[in-house]
Every structure is written in C-alpha cells, then in structure tokens.
Write a structure and sequence with these properties.
Elements: E1 2-11, E2 15-21, E3 26-30, H1 35-44, H2 50-54, E4 62-68, E5 74-80, E6 85-91, E7 96-101, H3 104-113, H4 120-127, E8 128-129, H5 151-206, H6 212-223, H7 225-249, H8 261-279, H9 283-286, H10 290-345, H11 350-378, H12 386-407, H13 413-424, H14 441-453, H15 457-475, E9 482-485, E10 491-494, E11 500-502, H16 508-530, E12 534-537, H17 545-558, E13 564-568, E14 579-582
Parallel strand pairs: 3-13, 3-14, 8-12, 12-13
Antiparallel strand pairs: 1-2, 1-4, 4-5, 5-6, 6-7, 9-10, 10-11
Helix pairs in contact: 5-11, 5-12, 5-13, 6-11, 7-10, 8-10, 10-11, 14-15, 14-16, 15-16
Amino acid sequence: MQLTELLFQRVKDLGAQGQLALRPGYVAVVSKAASVRNAVVAALFPGPDDLRRLVDGEGPTRIGIGLLSGDGTPYRLLRELGGARQLQRFDAAEKKFSTLSQDNLEIESFLRVECGLPPGDHYSGFFVMESNELPSMRSRAAAGPDVFVDGAKVQALKQELEQTKRYEGIQDRLFKVQQRLLELTELGDRFRSAQDELNEIQAQLARSPWTAEQMKDLAARAARAKEDLKRRDDALSEIAHKRQRAIQTTPPPADPLLGDPWFLCGMLAGIAIDGLAAYLRAPTIAFAALVPFLVALIASLRFIQADEADKAAGAYMKELKDREQAVKRAYDEEQQPLKNAMRAAHVDSGSDLLQVFSEREKVLRGLDDARSQLDEARKQPDLPRIPIETPLLEEEKRKLEAEVAAQGFARPLGEIELDLKHALGLGDLRKGGLLVPEPDVPRHLVDKAAELLNLHADEVWEEVAPRLSAYLVALTDKRIASGKPDEKGHWVLSSADGRTGPYHGLPAPLKDLAYAALRLSLIERVAAYKRLPVMVDDPFSAFDPAKRALVAKMLKGIAAQTQIIHRTAEAPPQGIADLVVAA
C-alpha cells in the first residue's frame, strides 16, 4: 500500500483547504502542525477524538487520502468529520474517481484485505512514531485514583470489542473461503475448458476422411500435379509425332495379288506355254514357260514384301496407340486419389486442397497444444480436491454469510478501544489498557513487531541485531556498540570496551538515541514484510542538527522498503528526501 495524496478542508492548523501530493520513498512534510499526522490516521481509522483534534470550528471539516492498493489500483478515501466515509476508485476510461462504497464495513474490509492494513491500534502503535514518543518526552503518568470508572459501560465495551473481533475474524474467514472457492472454480473451469477443446479437436479430426499419411501423400500429389500433367502431355505429344511420321513414311497398302497384271499375265502365259508343249509333245517348249512364271514369281515376291511392310506399319501404329492409352491410364490412376480427395473436400483445384490440408495441420498442432494444456491442468495438486472441498467450502460460506448477516453492523476496533480507554479513565493505552513500565518498553516494541511478523520475539531480536548495532553505533557515536535481551527480557546494552548496562538506566539523552535506534531497526524489519506507509510525526526535534540529518539518512534507507512520511519542522538536508512538501 502507498499513499499518493492528502486532501483537507477546514482542518485545524492546516488552513481552509489544500492538497499535498505524496510519492513513494522518503517524503518530508515541512510543517509545525500535528494535524498532518492526525488527518492521515483519522482518514484510515476514525476515532472519537478526531473532532477535538482536527475541527477548526469554522465549517465542515473534510479530510481524504489517495492510496494505491496492493495491485496498484488508485483509490481515494474521503471523510467528513461527523459523517460517513466514502471510498472511490479511479476510472481509467473516464479519467476520474467514482464512488465504490459508502458502507463503513465494506471500507474496513477493503483496507484490511486489499491494502493489508492491520487494526487501528496495531497500525498507530507501530507504524506511527508520535511526536512525544522518545523516553524523555513520553508521559509516564496514568489516570489518578479519583477517576470514575463506569463498570457497566466498561463491561459492555469489552463485550462489544470481543464480539467485533470475532465478527472481523468471521469476515476474514469468509473472504478466505470465497478466495479458495474462486481458485477451485477457476481451476475446474480451466480443466473443463482444456478437456472440451481437446474433445472438439479430436471430433473434428475424426470427421476427416484422410489419415495423416494419406494427407501427406495427397499433398505430394497435389504439389506435383502440374508436373505430372506436363509429363503426360509431353508423352502424348511425342506419340502423336511418331504416329504422324509413321503415316508419312509408310507406303500405301499392297494391291491384291490376283489383281496384279504381271502376276496374272505371267501365270496365264506360263500355263499357255506349258499347255502348248504338252499338246505338241515338245518338252523343250515348256522351258520357255519359265520366263512368264518368273515374272509371276517376282510379282508374288513384291506383293509379299508390300504386305509384310503393311503389317509392320499396322503393328507399329497399334503399339503407339497402346502406349498412348497406357500413358493416359497411368496419369488417370495417379490423379484419381487426388480427384477423389478434391470431390470429398468440395474444392476445384489442387491449391485449394493444399489449403484444406494446411488447415488440418493447424488442427493437428492445436491437438498437441490442447493435450499439453490438459496435462498441465491434471498436474495441479488441487484438482482432485475440487469435488471434495467445494461442497464443504460452499456450506461453510453459507454459514459464515448467515453469521455476517446476523451481526449486521460493527464499529471499527480502534473506535471501540478508544471508547474503552476513556471509560477506564486512562490517558494513554500502551499494553492491555495499562502503561508499559520503562524497563519493559523495548520488549513491548519487539513483541508488537513479532506479532506483525508472525514470529517469536527471540527471532525478531536475532534478525534485527546487525542493523540495530549499526544504528546504535551511528546514533550514539560508538558509545553503545550492541544490545540484547537478558533472561527477564530487559534490554541490556554494551559499549565498545565490553561494559554493559540496562536500557532503563541510561541518561535521558542517551536513552533517547538508543530508543530511536531500536525503533528504526524494528520499523525497517517490519516494513520489509508489511510494506505499509510509516508516519514519523517529528519525534526527533530535540536532537541536534547533525543527529537529525543522520536520522533523515536512516529514514531514507528504510524508504527503500516502504513509504516514509516524515513531518518535520525543518527540511532535511538537500538531496536526502525523495520529495519535500510544505503544509
């Protein structure tokens, strides 16, 4: 949490109205008015003494603070003394603050849950350094014996205090239950979303008519479709060229042998000569028939040659036709799966089919992503607890909401405790309604730090020991080197030469320095854990200028952990504070 501004109107010692811009780090507010501290605390934790401390009597007194919650969202908390508080949130779209709630319980819950603020007494008792906090300035007087104590009122206030603490405990538990339910619901929704996405992708892939191997083969076919078509066309063109050449070079078909005049004349002449030789009984004449028979034989041989050439040409043409059909058939067989896939995908070209396959590839990659998301969701250790824990949490939530509704309203704890303090007639509540004895002051401070850190007091002493020694050496000019608690819990200090002595036995100026060292070291340790704004209400005004400058440097170092708002009558040395404002 971080404070960003202080708004005031008609506040005692601060003027008619004004605004102090704050920032992270060490902020020095140069002012002699204690109302700065009172205004900040009164806006966060309303109390019955606010009217006496802040109202100037000239009109309605209004105070407000700007703050950043744990998630960095800007808010404003406005209050009119004597009236209700108002919580506003900055609307980035409209660039203005809009009212979020005017319900005091909701505001208290917001400050406690979203900003991490402890109860008012814890915050004021540790994160606020009062102007009279040093031992030399702190009042040790308690209420006198003549103070009247209303026993019935005290008892009623104690009962209200216990009931309110229980009510706030219920609210805190309700918030934790709601947060746990939200976490389990979001985890279940993520798991179901991942499962539904995986099922949807698997169903989409199941409707696909192709396997991954088929899509790979079809994609290859589609990619080389143009090359296959060109190869087919080239083969058909070559066959057509060869057919054309064969037609041009093949002689015309041979005439029928019986229609050849040389064959007929040769045969008839030979037969006639042989008949004449037989008729004349002159064999020698028959030799003359050999000539026409030779002519007929030559005609027969020419016919046979032409016929064989014609048959060879026919066989070659048939071979070309068969090759043409084989090329077409091979191309059709190669393209048939691609055509079937295009019909199934309702596309007209191979490029469109490749686009379909590309979408399928994206789906496959989405399948891997969905499986990884589902596996990641299954690894969550709280997943098996959802069906078991959710009904129990819902039942507990209903009971807690019923208890909160039955309570209805509760005052802030700080307001009840202040009323109890006044009812007891105590001027200063330190611990359990009683003033803390001076020897127990260091232990009391460490106990408060341990409570805020959820640690044991001994652990806190051990953790702050190095920084505490450094602060003691610096502030006391090496007169005190270190300190540690004894068996009774009292703070025992040691000098560089080994001498020891109790804290409460120190001279007043040295005791102030030792107290400041302890207080700053504890603030530094708790601020690193809680990171809440620390109000320093000029308790170091009695120190000499060198010590005040040294304290300012120490506050600057602590400001690296959290915001420090230091009201001081004089500005720190130049270059130390991150921001110096005047009020």
